[in-house]
Every structure is written in C-alpha cells, then in structure tokens.
Amino acid sequence: MTLEINHLKKRFDEHQAVDDISLSVNKGDMFGMLGANGAGKTTTFRMIFGLIDPTAGSVTWDKDRLSYKRTHLVGYLPEERGLFPKLTVKEQLIYLMRLNNMKKPDILREMRHWLDRFQVPEYENKKIEELSKGNQQKIQFMAAVIHKPELLILDEPFSGLDPVNSDMLKEAVLDIQKQGTTIVFSSHQMRNVEELCEDLIMLKRGKAVLQGNLKTIKRSYGMKSISIRADYDLDFLHSVPGVLSLDKRKDGAIVKVESEDIAESIFHHIAKKGFVRKFEVEEPSLHDIFIDKAGEDAHE
Ligand SMILES: Nc1ncnc2c1ncn2[C@@H]1O[C@H](COP(=O)(O)OP(=O)(O)OP(=O)(O)O)[C@@H](O)[C@H]1O
C-alpha cells in the first residue's frame, strides 16, 4: 500500500497554491510536509483526503483514488479543528465514527482506551466547549485515529500543545506508526519533524524546494554549522568569504558556512589568533535548512 502523488496542481483563480508536486509514501512510513505559511500544505492534504479536486495530477492510496466510499481508510486531523462545542466528548466521537461505519461498542472501547492513554478518562461526558484548546485537540486527534485508518493525515498536530502534551501526542503517533499505519504530517516545529520523519518534502509557494530522506539531505547539504569556543573576539570571521552567519555566544560563536572547505579555512584563521577551546563542525539543523530553502517566506 502506497500513497502516490503525481504532478499534483491546484489553482485558485490566479493563485497557484500547489504547483506540480510528486511524492510517494510507503506503508508504515512517516512523512513530513514542511513549508512557511501559505506554502500549500493544507491544500495538498485536502486533495489527498478528497475534499477538493486537483486542477491537474493525481492522488492515489493503494492504487486507487480516495473517493467518498474509501474515506474511512483515512484519518484526517484538519488544520481548522472542527468539533461541535455543545456535544459531549462521547457524543462527538460517536457522531464522527458512525460516519466511518463503526459500531457503537467499538467506538466506546476505543474512546476509553484513548482517554485513559491521554490521562483524561473523566472527559467522556464533558462538553467540548468545557475543554481547553489543547484538550480539544486531543479529542480531535482521537477522531482521526479511533477507526484505525490505514493512512493518517495530521495537519499541524502539535500546534498549541504544551511540551508535556506534545510529547504524549508524539508517542501516540509513533505507536500508531509501529502498528503499520502510514502517516503524513505537517509541522512548523522543525524539532518534531527531525524526531519523527524519515522522509520529507519542503514546499515554497506550492513548489517542492527540497525532497527526500532527511539523513541524506542533512549529510549532503553543503552548509555546515561550526560551534567554536575561544577566548578572543570572533567578530573578524564576518569578513571571511563563505561565512553565512555568525551568532555570538557567551564564550564563542556558532558560525554557519557554505561548505566543509570554508570550515577548514575558518579553523586556520582562528588557530592563528590563539588557543581554540572547541571547534566542532556539525550538519545543519532542519531549522537552518528551512530558513535557507524556504527563504523569505519563513518567519520562524
Ligand atoms: N479556497 C481557497 N481559495 C483561494 N485561495 C486559497 C484557498 N485555499 C488556500 N488558498 C491559498 O493557497 C495558498 C496555500 O494555502 P495553504 O492553506 O495550503 O497553505 P499552508 O502551507 O497550509 O499554510 P499554513 O502553514 O499557513 O497553514 C495560500 O496562499 C492560500 O491563501
């Protein structure tokens, strides 16, 4: 079972929201979709789920279009959370899961399992409007997973969660993946993507600007980050060709350079100045790559 996206495009009047993206995600993989605000992530998710039709290109799950009859195979956590404030958690989940043809005893069993897991068993009979935003999000997440979909789409699942709840959700997502579910998610929090994804696509104004295996991308990315500790001012490194940025720290600096060769030349420059306490060349973080690639659209 594979999610296949081929030359997918979506145009809204004059605006090309998604511009020719192709990707495939194999069963059980976790795939990250990155991009600044307005890059086209949500539009892509809506096309995967079948809420809107592509202008061109195709989306298939297990070689077939995700038509209305097959939507129960997919779990979708939409960006615009859509719960009914006046319903209780139980009523809400029964309502949504009946749409997936789930039987009531199965819904209740799964709901209680998840409420226990999220350490909020007492929420069963609480109204949605009585819950905090973060806790409503847990219920929305449950609505995406209770029917055990083959493909799970999570649009910004971690936004608005405190660190404890964010970790709880992350563990839940990893467990669901272990059970063989294929997961595609978007996040503005690069650390989450680094922790969870093997493969990713980075969109900018609807186009893929970076795509592939995260480890390979990081290894092959020219840019390097050097962590330096020294007892003298490192400001002079600003004028070394190939230095992209210099971020001063208490007893040194983090210097971003274009390539490993530049890192070597930096080492010679500072060694001439005096004793170097630390000089460590690291691969760029996904955050660095995002700023570099998503460019002026990224306001992280
Ligand atoms: N129904 C619509 N009609 C017109 N324009 C739309 C519509 N839906 C999305 N767009 C436009 O398409 C572009 C992509 O939007 P989309 O919501 O897919 O971005 P996104 O990557 O999910 O952004 P964010 O991180 O802010 O959620 C935006 O410029 C948006 O204004």
TrEMBL record:
Gene Ontology terms for molecular function: ATP binding; ATP hydrolysis activity
InterPro entries xrefs: AAA+_ATPase, ABC_transporter-like_ATP-bd, ABC_transporter_ATP-binding, DrrA1/2-like_C, P-loop_NTPase
Database matches in Gene3D superfamilies: P-loop containing nucleotide triphosphate hydrolases (3.40.50.300)
Keyword annotations: ATP-binding, Nucleotide-binding, Transport
The UniProt record lists the keyword Transport: yes
Span of domain ABC transporter: 3-230
UniProt-listed SUPFAM superfamilies: P-loop containing nucleoside triphosphate hydrolases (SSF52540)
Family per record: Belongs to the ABC transporter superfamily.
Protein name (record): Sodium ABC transporter ATP-binding protein
Organism of this sequence: Salipaludibacillus keqinensis
